[in-house]
Design brief:
- It is a single chain.
- By secondary structure, the protein is mainly alpha-helical.
- It has one domain: ABC transporter involved in vitamin B12 uptake, BtuC (Orthogonal Bundle), CATH 1.10.3470.
- About 70% of the residues lie in helices and about 0% in strands.
- The protein contains 14 helices and two strands; from the N terminus they run E-E-H-H-H-H-H-H-H-H-H-H-H-H-H-H.
- It has a two-stranded antiparallel sheet with strand order 1-2.
- A hairpin with a 2-residue loop joins strand 1 and strand 2.
- Helix 1 packs across helix 2, helix 3 crosses helix 13 and helix 8 runs antiparallel to helix 11.
- The chain is globular.
Length: about 375
């Protein structure tokens, strides 16, 4: 009778299972954590490529859809061939507004993501926290009191308004001790006061009302190449700064002490984040008017795909926010035929239900 022998025990522990015969000698076996980490990286990278493809599709639709429908081939021909019958339609009417939608969408999406990380407020948005209203108040003051005209005339005022409101809301909301509720209340109160000021100035100055009535709705229809070229360096600087702040903002989310232990400088990070938001919101809002909910919706949708890691979340925002902005512009052209709905109206119609759903979901989760 053969006895079954138990494995030898050395040092109080059972013998290790045999090595994987397919693994070369001397090569360590990859752990489950490593495999899952590589899987997450691959899925997020693939998601970025998918977001880029979706953005390219929306850009093509923006060039093709309008009062005069163009096929994708005609849109491409009008883009690259100066002798094409569609050249004038594409280059003079649709390409400038498409480029502006791309720039403004990326700017507002990144600004929303940075603001939500900086304030730890899931409702932070350039519109909800009053930054758009600050830009509007500065621009209407420039037009009415200083005779400013066009993007070149009031871009400086737009940056001043965005920076002032950012600092005031952050300070009134409690600074480092700010809570989401206090920031939301401060932003809402300041937004109401500034909008009242804008309306009062417009009622007293009919000339400024005529020049502001399309701008205050939020529109891409009056986009021009020179405006896009002026906005480009500001948006590009804000995008690069926001992306560079991803790691410091990740550390700041752990608290000031933990951030310092990780080599971050919380005060400098906050200051640079406010500068990035000012550049992004000021340039975008001055160019196409105050457009709300883009900076709120996109970071929330992206966070469900990437998690809270800003190193992935912010690049996703930079690609998917223009998808929302340009897509809303295309939708406005389709729904408003033979005229069109302004993109600011479409984003409000889309963003309002999203905002209510999000608030309702948080209440249910907290119950």
């Amino acid at each position: 009778m053969t006895l079954l022998k138990s494995p030898k025990v050395q040092g109080g522990s059972a013998a290790q299972p045999p090595a994987d015969p397919e693994r070369p000698a001397g090569q360590p076996e990859a752990g489950a954590g490593d495999r899952s980490g590589r899987g997450r990286f691959a899925s997020r990278a693939a998601g970025l490529l998918g977001a880029l493809a979706l953005l390219l599709l929306v850009l093509v639709l923006s060039l093709a859809v309008g009062a005069r429908q163009l096929s994708p081939g005609e849109a491409w021909s009008g883009l690259v061939d100066g002798g094409s019958p569609a050249y004038t339609v594409v280059h003079e009417m649709r390409l400038p507004r498409t480029v502006l939608g791309l720039l403004a969408g990326a700017a507002l999406g990144l600004a929303g993501g940075v603001m939500q990380a900086l304030t730890r407020n899931p409702l932070a948005d350039p519109g909800l926290l009053g930054i758009n209203a600050g830009v509007a108040a500065a621009v209407v003051s420039a037009i009415s009191f200083f005779g400013a005209a066009g993007y070149t005339g009031y871009i400086g005022f737009a940056f001043l308004g965005a920076a002032a409101v950012s600092v005031v809301v952050y300070a009134v909301g409690g600074g480092r001790a700010a809570t989401p509720a206090r920031l939301a209340l401060a932003g809402t109160a300041l937004n109401a006061a500034l909008i009242s000021y804008v309306n009062a100035v417009q009622l007293l100055d009919t000339a400024s009302l005529d020049r502001m009535r399309f701008w205050t709705v939020g529109s891409l229809a009056r986009a021009q190449d020179d405006v896009n070229l002026m906005a480009l360096p500001f948006v590009l600087a804000g995008v690069l700064l926001a992306l560079a702040l991803a790691r410091p903002l990740n550390a700041l989310a752990l608290g000031d002490d933990a951030a310092r232990a990780l080599g971050s400088r919380p005060t400098l990070t906050r200051a640079l984040a406010i500068i990035a938001v000012t550049l992004l919101c000021g340039a975008a809002t001055a160019a196409c008017g105050p457009i709300v909910f883009v900076g709120l919706m996109v970071p929330h949708m992206v966070r469900s795909l990437t998690g809270p890691d800003l190193r992935w979340m912010l690049p996703y925002c930079a690609l998917l926010a223009p998808v929302l902005m340009v897509g809303a512009d295309v939708l406005g052209r389709v729904l408003g035929r033979p005229a069109e709905l302004q993109v600011g109206i479409v984003t409000v119609v889309l963003g309002g239900p999203f905002f209510l759903y999000y608030v309702r979901r948080r209440k249910v989760a907290a119950a």
